[in-house]
């Protein structure tokens, strides 16, 4: 585990995606495997409450909270004003707009949601 952790600091990313046109690389094999599912459209993490399925456990976890907790849609897109229950959902939505300053816009929306 120390070697994996050290890669975070050194920038070493030995696990490269082989999908044509994709230049992503990862510090851990498990992250590459999760990433590959996005290319393959493989969604093994299924919600037991509805029809939704996800490529990774973290995304399913975020989704499951929408079934168990009454979330207010406080994360609002600064471009089209659509609102979401989490910063993760907002970021996925905002990628469709492809703003050059995506990270800054999501952070601004998250700050507004926290206020």
From TrEMBL:
Belongs to the krueppel C2H2-type zinc-finger protein family. One of its GO terms (molecular function) is DNA-binding transcription factor activity, RNA polymerase II-specific. The keyword Transferase does not apply. This is Zinc finger protein 384. It comes from Neovison vison. One of its GO terms (biological process) is positive regulation of transcription by RNA polymerase II. The lineage of its organism: Eukaryota, Metazoa, Chordata, Craniata, Vertebrata. PROSITE patterns: ZINC_FINGER_C2H2_1, ZINC_FINGER_C2H2_2. GO terms for cellular component: nucleus. Residues 15-44, 45-72, 75-102 form the C2H2-type domain.
């Amino acid at each position: 585990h120390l070697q994996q952790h050290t890669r975070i600091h050194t920038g070493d990313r030995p696990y490269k995606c082989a999908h044509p046109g994709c230049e992503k690389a990862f510090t851990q094999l498990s992250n590459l495997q999760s990433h590959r599912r996005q290319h393959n459209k493989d969604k093994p993490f299924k919600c037991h409450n509805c029809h939704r399925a996800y490529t990774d456990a973290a995304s399913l976890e975020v989704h499951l909270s929408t079934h168990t907790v009454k979330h207010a849609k406080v994360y609002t897109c600064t471009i089209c004003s659509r609102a979401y229950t989490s910063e993760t959902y907002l970021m996925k939505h905002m990628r469709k707009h492809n703003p050059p300053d995506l990270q800054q816009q999501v952070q601004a929306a998250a700050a507004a949601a926290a206020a």
